[in-house]
Model the fold of this input.
Amino acid sequence: MGSTPRHPVPLGFVFRSRSKDEKAPTDKVPVTDSTQPRDPQAPKGRPTPKRSEAQSQRRSVANTPTTRKEAAKRQRDERRTQMERQRQALAGGDERYLPARDKGPVRKFARDWVDSRFNVAEFFLPLAVVILVLSVVRVASLQNIALLLWLVVIVLIVLDSIVSAFRLRKRLGERFPDQNRRGAVAYALMRSLQMRRLRLPKPQVKRGERP
Done:
């Protein structure tokens, strides 16, 4: 049987084809930036978070209390810090850290209105001391004077409180017609019972100054 002649394949063609096949897969591999380190906390298959985000995550994990004792200590520290801020706010009048009963423009106006005038009730404690001393002395005339002073002081306080409540309610209605004014008059009357230097928050207006 005759065999068909085979044509010899040039060696240069074989080597060229192999070199092309070997280089072909490398051209399809995407280029990655090996200089950027991968965050070990980043899940696989997800992009590495930014440095600021990673730092904030580490900070939140570090600040999280791990035991009940640490949590209780942190609560005490936060409570102490809040009380210190309230104390400074009561002394300086900073609205941001005042207690809830003292916050708001209505309560501030009520405080300023009381602090801008003389109130009979604020002299109750000094007068009470004088009346108590007179009542202790075993002299009938002085004891009668002490009793009369008690009656006069009480009547004056009641009358002054009624007039103050009526005037303040009217001023609040004119200044804050659309805001909640509930409890503001009682709040002001309770403040008027305290001596000016002992009031908290501290007075922010002078006597006679229009609030």
Notes: The two ends are 127 Å apart (CA to CA). The CA atoms of residues 166 and 185 lie 9 Å apart.
